[in-house]
Design a protein that fits this description.
This protein is of the alpha+beta class. The protein contains 3 helices and 3 strands. The N and C termini lie far apart (about 25 Å).
Length: about 80
């Protein structure tokens, strides 16, 4: 497995990202929540609260969360499925 992570979703608030993270954990997928700003309430202006997963789990994670599955050039470190 690669050490790179793919952003599969961006949320406005940490609890939303944490709920998605918990859903993935329930399915056995390790994910990470990243705050773009040290003050979460400012993070939306800087890109939101991001949910990151290993590339090998991106497709399954997106399906579990009901998101569009990253494909081709979208499945890169800098790509995302925005929510």
């Amino acid at each position: 497995m690669s050490t790179d992570l793919i952003r599969i979703a961006t949320f406005a608030k940490p609890p939303e990202a944490e709920a998605a993270q918990n859903a993935l954990a329930h399915e056995g997928i390790k994910s990470y929540v990243e705050f773009i700003s040290w003050a979460w309430y400012l993070s939306n202006a800087a890109g939101g609260v991001q949910l990151l997963v290993p590339p090998d789990d991106a497709q399954r994670a997106a399906e579990i969360l009901g998101l569009q599955v990253p494909t081709g050039s979208q499945a890169s470190q800098d790509s995302a499925v925005e929510e």
